[in-house]
Amino acid sequence: MVTVENHIGKISVSEKYLIDIVKHTVDNCFGVAGVCSTTAFGSALSALTHERAFRKNRGVTIRTDKDGGLIIDLHIKVTYGTNITAAVDSIIHKVTFSVVESSGVEVHKVNVYVDDMSV
Predict the structure, then answer these.
(1) How far apart are CA 3 and CA 91, in angstroms?
(2) 46 to each of 2, 56, 61, 119, how far by Cα in Å?
């Protein structure tokens, strides 16, 4: 459960809801072949390095920072021939917009990791 307090009051949103929004948004982006599962080593490393790391959910990690905003980590697979820079910029903007519009929780950062390429 992600809880953020703002001028209106407290907002509590389930992690599963946020992950579903992110996955749906990413799957509909141009050039994305899918969301990659992260490795066990990556999951362990993330749990050790992030103080408030939430459980992994198949390539999407959502955590909060000191100011109460969200930090979203995505591991994706792109299709061959895609302009990766343009695709990543598009993903960052679309994910940020979708999460803010649907939940009202501020997104401070979206990290996109391209782990694989589909032919």
Answers:
(1) 24
(2) 18, 9, 9, 29
Whole-number Å distance between alpha carbons of 5 and 3 = 7
In 1-106, DSSP assigns E strands to 2-5, 10-13, 32-35, 60-64, 70-79
Threshold 0.85, pTM exceeds: no
Other CB atoms closer than 10 Å to residue 5's CB: what's the count?
A: 10
Calpha distance 118→81 (Å, rounded) = 9
Rounded CA gap, 8 and 6, in Å? Answer: 5
Residues 6-31 have pLDDT tens digits of 787 887 888 899 999 999 999 989 88
pLDDT in tens, 73-104: 999 999 999 999 999 999 999 999 999 999 88
